[in-house]
Amino acid sequence: QVLLVQSGADMKKPGASLKVSCQASGYNFLSHGISWVRQAPGRGLEWLGWVSAYYAKTNYAQKFQGRVTMTTDTSTSTAYMELRSLRSDDTAVYYCAREYRSGDYDHWGQGTLVTVSS
Amino acid sequence: QSVLTQPPSVSGAPGQRVTISCTGSSSNIGAGYHVHWYQQQLPGTAPKLLISADTNRPSGVPDRFSGSKSGTSASLAITGLQAEDEADYYCQSYDSSLTHWVFGTGTKVTVL
Predict the structure, then answer these.
(1) pLDDT of residue B2
(2) Could you report the average pLDDT of every consecutive run of 10 residues in chain B (112 residues)?
């Protein structure tokens, strides 16, 4: 079955960088893009960006342009999301999700809680 | 704030029908981009795809859930409301001005 397994919870200081991994299994990693979505405490879902191993392309939300990088490693079917210059309002649960066709996410990782605090 | 606006909350008694609106603009829903809907049972847990491409239910989603779209808005309807439907619901569409996907503001459904 399709599984997306994310790296564990992390705690960072303001100004630092975080890198979350998302290892996919149960399907052809090249056939579907991976998007990243976050949810701050008490807030709604926020789309961060998308990465495609097949097309070697990315698309980032304007809000995060210049601060986020999404990559893939096809040898391990793993997607990565790096966010730099962390602030306290980056504290959130970060999810990776498989794009089924066009922007619809049919499988999600379990989420990674990232806490940014001094 | 999101470019897709949803009511903060809706409620209904078991068995009733409730609808959740998702209001956008000419740069997203009104431009013909697909709308997807997600259910999140608890904040901090992974959302579940409920409706794909405006009206399509993925395998395993009960037919009590249905989606529709008209003009610059979309709607999710839940008929025969059940206690287990109590959750947060989010719409999603592509915005051509932002050039990326966006989620709606979210709606909490309460079963009375």
Answers:
(1) 85
(2) 94 98 98 98 95 96 97 98 97 96 98 96
Strands (E), chain B: 9-12, 18-23, 35-40, 48-51, 65-70, 73-78, 87-95, 100-103, 107-111
Q: Give the whole-angstrom CA distance, residue B68 versus residue B76.
A: 7
Q: How many Å apart are CA A45 and CA B2, to the nearest integer?
A: 10
Closest chain B residue to A114 measured between Cα atoms? B44
- Please check the confidence at residue A36 and state whether its pLDDT lies above 90: yes
Dihedral, B25, B29, B33, B36 alpha carbons, nearest 10: 140
B100/A61 touch (CB, cutoff 8 Å), yes or no? yes
Contact between A34 and A99 under an 8 Å Cβ cutoff? The reply is yes
Residue B15 three-state SS: coil
Option in B34, B36, B105 nearest A44 (CB): B105
Contact of A79 with A24, CB cutoff 8 Å: yes
Contacts of B4 in chain A (CB under 8 A): none
Distance from CA of B19 to the nearest CA of A (A): 19
Lateral strand order in the sheet of A78-83: A3-6, A18-25, A78-83, A68-73
Burial class (CB in 10 A: 0-12, 13-18, 19+), B76: buried
pLDDT tens-digit readout, A52-80: 999 999 999 999 999 999 999 999 999 99
